[in-house]
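User: Please run a holo structure prediction.
Assistant: Happy to. Please share the sequence and the ligand.
User: Here you go; the ligand is adenosine-5'-diphosphate.
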Amino acid sequence: MIQFQDVSFKYKNGKYAVQDLSFSIQKNECFVLIGPSGCGKTTTIKLLNRLIQATDGVILYDDKNIKNYDQHKFRREIGYVIQQIALFPHLNVEENISIVPELKKWNKTQIKARVAELLELVKLNPLEFSKRSISELSGGQQQRVGVARALAGEPNLILMDEPFSALDPVTRIELQKDLKVLKNKINKTILLVTHDLDEAFFLGDRIGIMHEGELVQIGTKNELLNNPINQFVEQFLQNYREKNVVKEGI
Ligand code: ADP
């Protein structure tokens, strides 16, 4: 569904934020990009949603260069969930979720039904939450509304940039578990960016490890753990191994 072919992005100062990225994301796959801060994860997401343009290389969406799609239509194909939640504080829950369906000119009855369905999906009771203002929600509830809003326009692709990293650990784990269940229900293609290896292994069908603007290795959790390609990947996985040895030891 998505193919990066030798994609690079260079800043004016000559610094490459990402270099020669080549990977593909299959339909209905949850692909995770992980790596230390500054390794180029956000740049990769920005390239995909056309906030910035590749200096070299091509990105294909359904076999067509993303440059050749109408910008607005293309953006509406994509749902976003980001760290800073970014709900509109002056709109209530229902209004926040309705934004894209309204842009897509669905009728009012359709939109109302969709909002109720989505709130159920993210485990918020529609009767209780539809009319709430954003300030009356906890961080976790706001992020649930964020996920509902991202799904509202029936996008085919969901981009998640550190979606849970601003949440406390208990809420984060709860939302990760719910996203995993949701992921199997909705059959969407998801690109998730995180620096949390537990999250990557828990949610990702495949994981791409980035380092200094390059994709070092792509694989499933087991492929990576069994076959780290180099010292950097081995080091990166070390934390995870240590924690899980401790867990298994209990
Ligand atoms: P990540 O999301 O993995 O933390 P980014 O994609 O945000 O990484 O950044 C990739 C690299 O690009 C970093 O090394 C960062 O310092 C560099 N970078 C970001 N913005 C600029 C800029 N305006 N000019 C030059 N380099 C930049």
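Residues 11, 13, 15, 17, 35, 37-43 surround adenosine-5'-diphosphate (CB under 6 Å).
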